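Structure tokens please, single chain.
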Amino acid sequence: MPGHVKAGGSKEPDPDPAPFLFVSFEMKKEDSLKPYDPKKSVWVPDGEGGYDEAMIQEVKGDMIDVKVGWEPKTFKADKVMQINPPKMEKFDDVSNMTYLNEASVLWNLKARYVAKLIYTYSGLFCIVINPYKRYPIYTNRVVRMYIGKRRNEVPPHLFAISDGAYQQMMTNQKDQSMLITGESGAGKTENTKKVITYFAILGANEKAKKDGAPAEEKKANLEDRIVQTNPILESYGNAKTIRNDNSSRFGKFIRIYFNHMGKLAGGFIDVYLLEKSRVTYQQPNERCYHIFFQLVEVGPVEGLQEMCCLSTDPYDYFFISQGKVKVDSIDDQEELEFTDQAFDVLGFTLEEKQNAFKLTAAIIHLGEMTFKQKGREESCEMDDPIPGQNVCKLCGIENWNLFYGNFIRPKIKVGTEWVYKGQNADNCLNSIAALARSMYNRLFMWLVDLCNRTLIDPTMKKVNFIGVLDIAGFEIFEFNTFEQICINFCNEKLQQFFNHHMFVLEQEEYVREGIEWEMVDFGMDLEATIQLMEKPMGLLAILEEETLFPKASDKSFEDKLKENLLGKSPVFLKKQPGSKDKNAHFAIAHYAGIVNYNLTDWLTKNKDPINDTVVDQMKKADNALVVYLFRDHPGQPEEDPNKGKEKGKKGKDTKVFKTVSSAFRNQLDALLTTLNSTDPHFIRCIVPNNFKTPGLLDSALVMHQLTCNGVLEGIRICRRGFPNRCFYADFRHRFIIIKPKEVYAAGDDQKLAAKIILEACKDADDRWRLGHTKVFFRAGTIGILEEVRDECIKAILNYFQGICRGYLGRKQHKVEIAKRNFIPVIQRNFKKYIFFRDWTWYFLINATKRFIGQVNIEDEIAALEAEAAIACEAYDKEVTARDGYLAGIKQMTQDKKDMMHQIEQEQGDLSSYQQDLAKASASKAEKEDELAKTQRTLSDTEARRNEMNEKKRKFETDLSSFRKDIEDMEMAIQKADQEKTNRDHTIRNMNDEIAQQDELINKLNKEKKHMQETQAKSSEELTSAEEKLDHLNKIKAKLEVTLDELEDSLEREKKGRLDMDKQRRKVEADLKVTQEMVNDLEREKKELEGLIAKKEKEVSGNQTKLEEEQNVVSKLQKTIKEMQARIEVNEEELEAERQARSKAEKQRGTLARELDDLAERLDEAGGATSAQIELNKKREAEIGKLRRDLEEAAIQHESTLASLKKKHLDAVAEMSEQVDQLNKMKQKVEKEKHGKRLQIDEVKGGMDTVANEKATVEKQNHLLNQQLSDLTRRCEEANLTLSDFDNSKKKIVIENADILRNIEELDNNNNVLSKIRQTLSAQLDEQRKIADDEAKERAFLLGKFRNLEHEVDTTREQLEEETQSKADALRMLSKSVGDAQMWRMKYEKDGLARSEELESAKMKLQSRLAEAEATVQNFNNKAMALEKEKMKLQSEIEEVGGMLDDAQARCFQMEKKAKNFDRIVIEWKNKIDSLQAELDQTQVECRSYSTELFKVKTVYDESQQQLDVVRRENKNLSTEIKDIMDQIGEGGRTIHEIDKIRKRLENEKLELQAALEEAESALEQEENKVLRSQLELSQVKQEIERRIKEKEEEFDGLRKTHQKAIESMQSSLENETRAKGEAIRQKKKLESDINELDIALEHANGSNAESQRSIKRYQQQIKDMQLTLEQEQIHRDKAREQLIQAERRSHAVQNELEECKTQLEHADRQRRTAEQELSDVLEQLSDTTLQNQALQSSKRKLDSEMQTMHADLEEMLTESKMAEERAKKAMIDAARLADELRIEQENAQYCEKTRKSLDYQVKDMQSKLDEAEQLAMKGGRKITSRLEQKIKDLESQFDDEQRRLVDAQKAQRRTERRIKELTFSQDEDHKNHERMQELVDKLQNKVKSYKKQIEEAEEIAALNLAKFRKVQADLEQAEERADINEQVLARYKAKGRGGSVGPMM
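Here you go.
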């Protein structure tokens, strides 16, 4: 393929990849120098899909003026995007940039691509841009650089993602997947090959092949085979397109399997959507698949053209020559060589390879088959027979004429007969093209299957896999058709998968860091489009329906789509304007944009029919491959119906899809289920330009691909969260400059420091979150922080610059000051010059100025001459003296010479001595200099020596520390060496064991071939049975859990029922008591009503007083603190009233006297009476106004009372509705209980059937074991050979060494088990602590429950107190009635005498009495309503008590649940132990059941499909019958023939109807079975969820009912207080009326007795008021206590609410733990299945070892020697097994003792061997048989011990998992506790606010009360004035009457 490198290349070192991976320093420096303003630098669109850099000039609302270069432009604000700072140029990860926008992403990719950096990260994505050039970044050097490295340690690369997937697979033991998508030409296939090559290098096996192995057995290793699948897949699946010369025209998912060591264990390839249409049609600039052009190449494969009947010119063949024939970048000859080599490497046989080439050539020859039309007839005939002959030759078809004839006249089945139908030339060519496409598709799938066959190695264990998905990306073309919608739907699903996975990881990190975050599922964003495609009447369903409908057309398909989807789905749209495809039919809104689709030929593409007659002929061909390819096609069989039924049964095993869309959906669903079970890694490939030019990036094209690939969608999701994050240390280091003092004050608390910095930035509020180790930012927040940081740096720099500028300024200032000081001097001198310049004396002075002060020259000359003469004399003296001295020197030198000559002559030559002396003196001077130098150097060296000594001391201390470190390292190295030696020892042991196993394998190869068939059958049966067993165990576990829950719920309901009965009895007794009380009250009420009927006037007054007293009580409850002041005010008012009364009496006497005077003056002042009358009228009008105001206030109070009654009635209705709901829920629970019992019975029946099947399987297993024992016995008899005694002795010694090694291994295992035991004990202690904590919580709940009981008692006491207060009120009422009756009697006695005088007063009183009667009736009605409300309140209180008892019962049930949970935990532990014993028995049954269930599901699906097919065929047959009838009418057949045909068709119709009915009945049965199974599975889940919801609803209902009860009680109390207030007001009104009547009586009587009586009455009233005051004080105290109790109740209810929440959370935790335990049990089941398989394999190994042992024993046997040797071997084996069993059962403490005793045991063994030799001479055969039996027993015990060891290891894993879950649950509990604490704080705040509101309301009420008192006082004064006036008026009238009677006398 393109890019292959031939072997034998140069061995030069790999080039340096650094320039293509890293951003160089020069690039960073260049980027940092770019101009950048964080507030003005922006990106703006350039109009061509890209963006330009611009600077903001001005912001005008929504419009922004920018300057692009030097050109000004204006854009909208939403089109302008911010630029990232220069430090983020060429950033490795786009998602970590400060500003995440489209322009920044595009610029970053473009800058990196231009810099030859083709890989970039974008969150989870790795973006790859095709470089169109080969960079040295895939060499072995690069591979070594990325192996074992983390993603953040190396630059972005495909290998980093691959290595991360490999490391995650190894650490997490979970499958991985790599999703590589992109457009054609983006490099998907090349990146896939690089990924596969990387994994092949990582997982390559290092074992070298044995040199001694023959050449035939040497096979290519697995990694080579995985890599060599690429040439075959590329030859048959790749072709040239417009964009790409080597484009993959199919999608593939390659699974690369690894074992537990991380080595390659196999591979598997799934392919999707091969482009079949390319086989028969190509566009002009495209080419067909590469394999067609490789077949016409000459050279690499000899005889290929002759075998394939091909020429070397591709233009000879129509199918492959429609487009381009030659591609410059592809060498077809070389590619054919690679393909042929790949066939050989992958193990294809010669026949398979030749058949593949032949069928490919046959497809080429099919394109050359031509036909010509027969004149006017509809049929045609063949034109050239040679291509058909070639096809038949290559496919092995005998009759080529029939092959042509089947195209020209294919057979059609009409009823039960076959009819030949003529085809025209176009129809024949279309059927040939369809056959070629289908044949190529089937051939490609066959090649993939064979590649998978070679990649799968059954001997290697596959633990995990890494899947590589290479599939086309989202496509938006000018003409979008069926292939595009399939690809886009696949990408929609993959994008949904990515969205979900990406933000799941993000949210997991948020949770891990402790950030508050609401979970968001971004996978739901694409749900509308996916539902449009997948729903039952969605696009794909309609397409399949229309495809299978024979007369469907594109128009009908379009109409049906628009009818069902247009307007009903938001993403299904009409054709969008602006599309280049003018014939598009509809549009769909995808995540990448709106795509217009053209549905032309969708139905034919989806069906792709082929000629059944031709296929039937090809199925009978001689070529085995042709027959295999069309094996699943029915063809046109002519066999009997029984064979057809058999074929139908066979077809049920393999699901056949009739349409391309259904097959694609099935493949896509399987792919997504696989991906959902893996950890995905995403790679997005991008095409940079359409010209294949390196370094050129088309912005619009790249933006389109980023949108389609989902990169921008991923960035959108990132921006919803916190895309930028930073560790605290890094954040502090960079941003400490913002708040340096505060950060240093925070110390080492990094989190506090980060918080201080962030809180300082007000613009970044609510855009950051603090985690445990990191600080998280929303998109753009880091940019804000950077701006703040830059501003801080600018401020610091400005400060520095200010200091520098100040210094320079001051310096310059000093210079300027000096200049300023010089200026006046200059000015002064200049002014003087100007002043003197015209003055002549100034010229004279300037001219003579130089002469002033000069000396006379002549005098000076004379003085100089005198000095010169003196100097000359002195000179002369000196010269003479010098001459004398010179002469003396000459004389002396001459004398010296003479003397020297004389000395030389006398004493010898002293010159040599003088020279030596000079030399010595010179050397002495030099030595002295050297001594000084050496002394200086000595002092320097001593100083250095001292310094060196100090350094030496320091280095010694460092050296000691280094030595310690080195010793530690040496100890660690020694430990590692010891571990290495131990590992080497174990490896040697394993190698020895492998060698022994190889010997055993070599011996058993012959037996293995014979045993494989039987073993395969038994293994298949065992696997099926194990699958059944697994399934049944899962069902059994679920049903046991549900059974236990139902039993617990049944017990709880029974106890709840008993409690309810007890409570009902209590409530009935209370109800009887209350009924008696009610009856008594009713009797009293009747008596009172009778009294009221008699004395309506008096009762009305007393009623008003009662209402006023009640109103006062209500006001006293609200204004408790102000009552004492009010009492004082009342006392003062009473004193004032007394004084006023005395004054009034005095005034009355004076007024009487004045009245007499006035009577005398009346005649004189006649007009005074009229004025007085008018004043009285005015006063009466004022009194009337005041009364109306009082009546209006009463009406308002009545309206408020009515609203409160309505609220109370609504609360009562809600309570009744809740009771009804509880009854309904109870009925539902009983029904569900009955259903669960039925399910339990069904499960028991299923268990019985499972037991029966288990018994049959055990019988089969027993038979197989018998057969196996017979075979082993035969093998023993066949392998009896003779050998020497020395060989046997050597073998015994080797076995003894093996035994010692096994003992050591067992000792190590025992040590490990002891450690595991210690860890398990520690975990058990922790679990006990947790249980103790739960017990404490339970005790705490009990305490709260008791508090609730106490509060219930207090509420009952309050209710009793209220009843007593009501009885007191009734007593007061009776008292007031007595008083009224007394006043009535007085009125009847005294008033009759004065009736004539009181007629006017009577009229007034009658009107007042009428009003009073109306008010009395209203108050009677109110009293009745209040009594009814009281009854309702009592019933509600009883209901609340019942609900409280229910809550107590539920609390008790929750406690019992906790106990049951503990009991269940213990029971499950016991059950696990029992289940481990039962697992071996039930595995076979579970597997059989699961396979049966799977078969039932498949049969159900197929039956549905068959039913649809039958219905459609029936419709087709009906239409065909009509067509045939028409043809018969046109052909002019006879009526007799028509009748025959009609009868035959009717018979066929009846047969079809019968078959249809049978199919429908079978379908219904299967549907019923499937529905039952689904119901049985879903009911358990629904019941659990429903019960949880019911419990939650019960808790909510309890909370609501408690709240409503409290509110209703409060409202009733308020109503009662208001009613009391109204009664008091009425009482006052009545008192005022009574006072008026008293005044009238007093006026009538006119005596002092009345006044005295009134005084006594007032005294009595004062006493009564004092009594009422005392009662009101008592009521006030009671109300205060009630308030305190109500607050306690509210607190208790809040506590109860919190407890209910905690109980609910506890129940949720219990449910989670139960679910987790259930999952643990399921995992245990799976582990036990694996254990069973391992045990079976170990059993097989042990059987093989037994066979070898028997063979060795029988080889050593002769008549006597063989018996001796067998006895020795048996004794050694028996001793070995006995020692192993004993050592395995002993504790780890005795391991050292057993090691010491082994030597002694070896000696004993030798003695026993000697004894055994002697015994074997006597009776060897009997001893050997006994010892063989012992060996079997010991082996079974050894197997048991191994099982126990495996069980202990699994238990350890489970406990570790349990610990992790408990820690997680503890974290959740902590978080829930914090949430509840927050809720408590909020509730407390609410309570405080409510208290404040209550206090404000009380203050308002106090103000209103004061106002009311004022009004009342004014009213009383007005009434008194009115009474006085009335008295005066009465006197005047009396006087007037007396005056009128007097004159008449």
